[in-house]
Design a protein that fits this description.
CATH superfamily of the largest domain: MFS general substrate transporter like domains
Radius of gyration: 20 Å
Largest sheet: none
Shape: globular
Number of strands: 0
Strand content: under 5%
Number of helices: 17
Helix content: over 70%
CATH class of the largest domain: Mainly Alpha
CATH architecture of the largest domain: Up-down Bundle
Order of helices and strands: HHHHHHHHHHHHHHHHH
Number of domains: 2
């Protein structure tokens, strides 16, 4: 089995990804409020800096993918560990708005070249078409980033303050993330014709089984809307549940089911679904949120756990298909650059999802689920088109 053979690589890269997600994407959930209080700025300034970081990560995604296509994942991911340590150190020493923005912009570079898309591209550069099982393995490990990161951030903030927490994460990048990423195998040299294509930034030669010209656009839309829903739920789920009638304690308990459900979904993809074309797993995953929302709207708070499980499982599987679908449809040549371009709308959606869905929630309450469900169903429709619209 490919994953059993590659488990040392998966363990190293998955651990590094857990650290990277915990100390960037999941960091402001625990530290945004104390950062704002400590710097004497409104909390909106901190979230504005986080949004700017996400926008920067979107712009850098295609460049990072192209760099991995040319040189492999080790130099890019190693550099991201160094930049993460620097950005967190800058945050820890910030004395005002300028230091806050600078620190988050550095972390935006890290999110653009050091999270899942970069890890997936690094695996494809090393394993080619056989990377699917390893991609699943990495997402299984990094699926616990919030489970590990939030308690650790909370403990460090309570013990050492938010500045000490940032320094603690910076130290972990230097002591753990950097050695793990630096130990990744070197990618084999690219064949000269492909190297010339990568250097020019043009499209690589098309595979023999050429996909439909709109396939990349459909994938970009599907990933953007599903990531919008995922980020919206990550930031507003407790408020949404309480708007539907759940108590605060109940909303927190229901929200806690999302993480384990994501991991369960990834185990399902690795077990029962891994022998199927990943588009079938993506279709099932895109229906998870709409089905869960329908149960919630029909049955009320009693269906809250089912909603969280269906949403979480769908989100967990979709994370994997964001790496495997472009690989299956377009092949490994030029994967990093193409993946960066396909995921660019997703990162933009991620940056604006908290603000946009928060406005919908403030206006319509739990009725905002109609919007997120409609987006999920539109993603399902796009994925249904892929089978008939792509040369197989």
């Amino acid at each position: 089995m490919a994953l059993a053979r590659d488990w040392p690589l998966v363990l190293r890269l998955g651990t590094a990804q857990t650290l990277a997600w915990a100390s960037t994407y999941y960091l402001p959930a625990l530290l945004a409020a104390p950062m704002a209080q400590g710097l004497g700025v409104p909390a909106s300034h901190v979230w504005g800096a986080v949004t700017a970081a996400m926008l920067l990560s979107a712009a850098l995604g295609p460049w990072a993918g192209r760099a991995i296509d040319r040189w492999g994942g080790r130099p890019v991911l190693t550099g991201s560990s160094l930049l993460a340590a620097l950005g967190l150190a800058v945050l820890s020493q910030a004395q005002g708005h300028a230091g806050l923005v600078l620190g988050w912009l550095l972390l935006g570079v890290v999110m653009g070249c050091g999270l899942y898309e970069a890890a997936f591209a690094a695996l494809v550069r090393l394993k080619g078409q056989e990377a699917r099982a390893s991609i699943t393995g990495i997402t299984l490990l990094a699926g616990f980033a919030s489970t590990v990161g939030w308690p650790l951030s909370g403990w460090m903030e309570a013990t050492f303050g938010w500045r000490g927490a940032c320094l603690g994460w910076a130290a972990l990048h230097l002591l753990l993330g950097l050695p793990l990423n630096a130990s990744l195998p070197r990618a084999a040299p690219m064949p000269e014709p492909i190297r010339a294509v990568a250097a020019a930034g043009t499209e690589p030669p098309a595979p023999q089984d050429t996909p439909h010209p709109w396939t990349a656009w459909v994938l970009a839309y599907v990933f953007a809307v599903t990531w919008f829903v995922s980020t919206a739920m990550a930031t507003h789920l407790p408020t949404l549940l309480m708007a539907g009638g759940a108590t605060l304690a109940g909303a927190i308990a229901i929200g806690a089911l999302v993480g384990p459900a994501q991991v369960a979904g990834r185990l399902l993809e690795f077990g029962l679904l891994r022998r199927l074309h990943p588009v079938f797993a993506a279709r099932a995953a895109s229906l998870g949120h709409p089905l869960g929302a329908a149960c919630w709207m029909l049955l009320g708070p009693v269906a809250g756990p089912l909603f969280a499980i269906l949403h979480g499982a769908g989100n967990g599987i979709m994370t994997i298909t964001k790496g495997t679908l472009p690989l299956v449809y377009f092949g490994p040549v030029g994967y990093g650059r193409r993946q960066g371009l396909i995921m660019l709308p997703s990162r933009l959606a991620q940056a604006f999802a908290p603000l946009v869905f928060g406005a919908c929630l403030a206006r319509w309450g739990e009725g905002a689920l109609w919007i997120s469900s409609a987006l999920g169903l539109s993603a399902f429709a796009g994925l249904m088109w892929l089978r008939s619209g792509t040369s197989r």
